Amino acid sequence: MVIALFKAVNVSKFFGTTIALDNISLEFSRGLNILLGPNGSGKSTLLKLWSGLLRPSKGKVFVYDLDPWRHRKHIMEKTSVFFEDLPAPWWISGEEFMRYISEKRSLPWGEVKEYAERLGVTTYWSRLIRGYSSGMKKKLMLLTALSPDVESYILDEPYTLLDKEAVRIIEEIIYEKIKEGRIVLLATHILTGIEKYVEGFAILYSGRVLAKYPEGLAEIPVIIECRGKNPIEIEMEALKLNPSKIEIMEDNIRIYGQKTHQLEELIKRYGCIESVDLAFIYRELVKT
Q: What helix, strand, coil percent values describe the chain, rounded to 5?
């Protein structure tokens, strides 16, 4: 039985006359979970409800079966958060700031520095934060969220303002977290490839849930990736299943189609890897 660790039940959130969330219900468990939607869809609002920074106008939210508004301190002992609008203390250096975070959260300095080096923060963190570019500040604030050794991570739009190499490193760190059995809640409107490891997702639009997984989808578009010495043989077998698309790149073949029993048999026979085609679902539901 899968236990829901982050849960929203009939949740609405109003800011005056603005409806940020409109009667949504979601459950997420371990692994990578993605909130996907355009700006203004309610992703950040939901993450702030789960972080105990906001209270629902209607409905209830739970984190580890606790009300995050009433038990925020306990939940934050297990959770590390990054929000796109988090301010950085401009009057000190990045290194001074990280030493403060390290002390407050009892983080080994060596581990903090290792993450900082991976993200490229050490190349400029001796300077005052007020002189940082937007991308430099973002990497520093992501460092504060990713370096703690906790059970769950909440990341709100981590990819904007970052170059391709920084995005690759962030994805690498996220993958390491989920392989260790941690929970990662990722809100984004940008798909970079990490979604192939998704365990649960919801697509939000104007405060409503358009689709959610693993429940809620009658038909599930998938990508089947097979590596081997017989891509032509695999292609011929796949063509019998009427896929929507097939791509061959040397010894790697990707098959796009609906999840069926026949596809599952092909996966077993050739040792392929299956992932939900989240990009296809998003394109079909949200025309942006």
A: 35, 30, 35
| 3-state DSSP assignment of residue 90 | coil
pLDDT tens column, 182-226: 999 999 999 999 999 999 999 999 999 999 998 877 789 999 999
Helix (H) / strand (E) containing 249: strand 245-249
DSSP 148-216: S--SEEEEES-STT--HHHHHHHHHHHHHHHHTT-EEEEEES---SGGGGEEEEEEEETTEEEEEESSS
- Domains of the chain, with CATH numbers? 6-213 (3.40.50.300), 221-285 (3.30.70.260)
Question: Which residues lie closer than 8 Å to 212 by C-beta, 6 or more apart?
Answer: 26, 200, 201, 202, 203
What is the arithmetic mean of pLDDT over 222-237?
90
Would the pLDDT of 4 be above 90? no
pLDDT digits (tens, 9 = 90+) for 48-67: 999 999 999 999 999 999 99
**Tokens at 253, concatenated:** 């073949």
Contact 238, 190 (CB under 8 A): no
- In 16-92, DSSP assigns E strands to 18-28, 31-36, 58-63, 79-82
- Tokens at 68, concatenated: 């995050």
Please check whether residue 243 is in contact with residue 198, taking contact to mean a CB–CB distance below 8 angstroms: no
Whether pTM exceeds 0.85? yes
Rounded to whole angstroms, the Cα distance separating 171 from 146 reads 11
